[in-house]
Amino acid sequence: MYDIRLEGDTRAMLRRIRSFSEIDRRSINAALAEGVRESTLERFRQSKGPDGRRWKSSKRAILEGGKTLVKTGQLRNSIHTRSDASGFAVGTNAKHAATHQFGEPGRTIRARRKKVLRFQYNGKWVSKKQVRVKIPARPFLGLSEEDMQEMKATVEDFIGREG
What we know:
There is one protein chain. The protein has 163 residues and is an alpha+beta fold. It is 41% helix and 20% strand. The protein has six helices and six strands; from the N terminus they run ααααββαββββα. The longest helix has 22 residues, at 25-46. Strand 1 and strand 2 (87-91) form a beta hairpin. The protein has helices at residues 11-21, 25-46, 59-64, 74-77, 97-102, 145-162; strands at residues 80-84, 87-91, 104-110, 117-121, 124-128, 130-135. It has two domains: 14-103 and 139-162, no CATH class; 105-137, no CATH class. It has a two-stranded antiparallel sheet. It has a two-stranded antiparallel sheet with strand order 3-6. It has a two-stranded antiparallel ribbon with strand order 4-5.
């Protein structure tokens, strides 16, 4: 058990403490979620992970030009947020997102609807019943040190408005 004794005029301090319990947590979490979403979209522009390291360029980006993970923009555009008074989440429901986030050490792709897969490799058309692919991890979700600092500033801004 703890016993705390306060002396003097504590009304201002108690008002401030009470105001913290009335902070609009839903709005704070919505602001935090949007900040992390914007940071994630910036990673697609810079081709970098939350740790600041550049993604390994995809073969498509090397051969055709363009940026890794943004050929159609579908993955980037699928980044969404959810928030309420208890917290927030930033993520995607794109089926291929986990493969790009964590990489794939070796996956076999087999022809299903036709007898063979037909694709270009080194500028030539190839037909195969199956192929084994390795995809390096290109993390786009997560929090960087800069994200953490931005989140801290956002919370401090909300607390400052309440006081």
